[in-house]
Structure prediction request, 1021 residues.
Amino acid sequence: MDFLQQFCQQTLNGLSLGSIYALLALGYTMVYGIIKLINFAHGDILMVGAFVSYFVLKQWGITPVTLMLSFLPAMLFCLTLGVTMEKLCYKPLRNQPRINSLITAIGVSFLLENGARVLPMIGPNPRVFPTLPVVNYNWFGLVSISQVQILVFVVAIFLMLVLNYIVSFTKIGKAMRAVSFDKGASALMGINVDRVISFTFVLGSSLAAAAGILFASAYPQIEPYMGIMPGMKAFIAAVLGGIGSIPGAVLGGLILGVAETLTKGFLSSQLSDAIAFGLLILILVVKPSGLLGKPMGEKV
Amino acid sequence: MKKKWLIVGALVVVVAVIIIILTGRGKSDTLKIGVIMSTSGPVSHFGSQCRDAMLMAVDEFNARGGVLGKQVELIVEDDEKNPEKTMNALIKLVTKDKVKVVLGGLTSDCTLAITKEAQQRGILLFTPTSTNDMVTDAGDLVFRACFKDSFQGTVMAQFAIETLNAKKGAVLYDMNNDYSTGLTKSFEETFTALGGTVVATESYAGGDKDFNAQITKIKAEEPDVLFLPDYYNTVSLITKQVRNQGLDVTMLGPDGWDELVGQAGEEAVGGYYCNHYSPDADDFDVEQFVAQYRERYGLTPNALAALGYDATYIVLEAIERAGTDDPQKLKAALMETSAKYVTGHITFDENRDPVKSTTILKVVKGADGKLTTEYVGVVNPD
Amino acid sequence: MSKKKTTVVSGFVVAIVLLLLNVLVALRIIDEYTSQVLTIAGINVIIALGLNLISGFTGQLALGHAGFMAVGAYTTAALMMKLNIHVFPAIIGGALMAAIFGFLIGLPTLRLRGDYLAIVTLGFGEIIRVVMINLPDLTGGPAGLKGIPTYTTNFFWRPVVSFALVYFVLAFVVVLLSNLLRSSHGKAIISIREDEIAANAMGINVFYYKIFSFTVSAFIGGLGGALYAPFFGYLSPNMFNFQKSVEFLIIVVLGGMGNLTGTVLAGIGLTYLQEVLRFLKDYRLVIYPLILIVVMIFQPSGIMGLFGNREFSLATLINKLNSERPTQEKSSDKAGEVQ
Prediction:
């Protein structure tokens, strides 16, 4: 296998991983854009989504149809969880210092992880996520793409298009953008800010659930702590693209996925996490607003 | 004013008295053995099985009238797979419960944290399952029941060259795990010494889920065998991605693959690994142990349970031979161990590591379509 | 009593209490196991105090204090084992190294507003582990570093020396922090927590004070780790994971952010509870995050919030006990507060 072939293959692997990061980063970026909170528990929603789908697929058996159908209960469960989380844990703290909600978010994250761990039906041991039989397609003898990777691309692009439609063309989407721009002013204009914030959690959590199923299909092993690393990477992706910016989150996710896979493939796997955090530090030093973010002045 | 100082003084005395009362201890005439096991935390599943097997072994002794006329009592402390908690547990067992013999810990990092302390305090430490080569370095009071990592690597390299006629070998290991790195080193050494070539050595960080980049690199070198020295949960992921990429290679593994058949899919079929014992082995001791464990706990014991059971037997039998649990005398009695146990015939070498055989198993598809293991054979130490 | 006299008496009382505790340890009235747990508790408290400085007083969330602890511990161990440096300069060296790391991490991140420090320190805590694993010559690699020389090899004195040293340093850190926080620098630091923009407008160099506070915080975190290495004699990279950083955060939050007394009480209490509550098994994993959430929502000022968020102050206590005598100064300050 020559260098070019390997390079293309690794880039494809990276784009597949990056699409999952992108889906997750969208949730971070929207929540941060609106209530200025790093929702540490976002990565764990990915885990919950994967587990819901796991239990559904165990009931129904694995076929392409059931796999697609399992997105529905997983997303529904996670959006309920996301809204509950927001109402119970973050809303009471909205007018408190930011550090308080940040600490609560860490608490929620640990609660979801360890809660799943002590639940008898989940437990600490990794489970095997049901997968479809492996089919590899070869493209021009250059790269081979697996069925799972195609699934990841198709679902990720579809969901991003849906999200784009919601945010750009619906009433609630406009309200979201307004609240993100100026919470106080939009409340004065008659926008129900509480509802918009809840809706943001609905969108973010259902995307995270979908990312969870894709992640579990690509790396078919699920356990309570599976969300931590993707969560952290997705946050970095969101900062990289410009936190608060939706296209930025997608771009950041793809860049991070490719950078990580190429590092593993051509430099050293030991460096891949360091590269991710190195990228974060670099972007903070050079362009703190991220690739596509707008620099914002400080407001009193 | 004097009155107030008096009150403060009285408070100090009261607190001191409470502490003394709390730390007081009762006496009993049982033979106490300390156990440090990870019964909670990330490896609780293994720790619990190992502890259960130990309790079963002790009950068997007690039913027969105990050891040296005394009933044996296991005092089990949980270390949460945390070296700090392991040390706390050891100090508690030694200073509060006054035990002289401690069985444990489960994982090598926890055991390594306490070997020196146990040796200096003159406590006999017998670990059933810590395979790291350095565990028994600390001194003449530290023993173990399992074979060590370098032995496993050597055995699998030997097996690859001599039985599978492999020429080109590849390794994919966890660089953050001493178990994985130690095995990699001994596998590579033996594989090269026996005339093979290690064409690719790739690594990942513990907890990684995506191995496609490394596998792509390994695939380019077209190896005959791929050695995967890690635990079953990571290995099941790797095997899947290996097959996804269409890499046709025989996979080999160490005892960490124990229970792989419950986790992995068809991708793992055809892989070989070495283990401490096989529950399906055609052996009277094994059959009896497995039957009793199943009856008592309702599941098939894994290799760690078998080792815990053996460790308890080895120590208690040595106490019977020595006539005491005094570590200095017990040490000599342990060195005379030479008997057949569930995990094979065991004697101890001068480093207090057991000289025992290892079982090689093959992952196959059973008649019911589920994965199972096939007993390939036994490799004896040189 | 005059203020000076009060300080002297406070110091005297602290010394007596420490001495008394040490005698109890030496006589094994506080048995070895309890003193072991208490010593670990003391180290946890020291590191949590450091975390409280940056998170509680400066208002910047840091999630990597296990990383600073690791830097301090491994540096001390390396200085002692490779360069044969005496234990005390080695401890200082370990703490200084952690401070350097803190400074370097703070430089790019503290310049910005927002919560970047949280995520970068979190990343630092994880990466430092990977670095430790990949420097096997210095750190023993993933198997851990065995055979670090302990404070003394004498069995009888070892628990006493460890206990004495840790609690002496703890008292020192408490005095240092309470004095720092009452100085004008301390007021500047607290003003950043209250309102960063207003502080800036008042002419406070916000970036300088954030860096200062974070570096001191890292120094104290490293100091805790440095004390840990020769106490424990064994280090392994996985002892310093994210879970450990969060444990320090729980101590700070439960005790009350921005309250030193609370950190000391919560640190000792929680460390001891961990030993007692082991029968809860893995359910304790659920209790910790619940503490974080419930405290933040219902009692953001922690347990000390129940007592009006006051600091325990020996000086005030002494003056109260002394109140039969007419006092000239009203001593409402917090001199010599210990535990």
In short: Chain B touches chain A at residues 42, 44-45, 175, 202-205, 207-210, 212-214, 216-217, 219-220, 233, 236-237, 240-241, 243-246, 263-265 (CB under 8 Å).
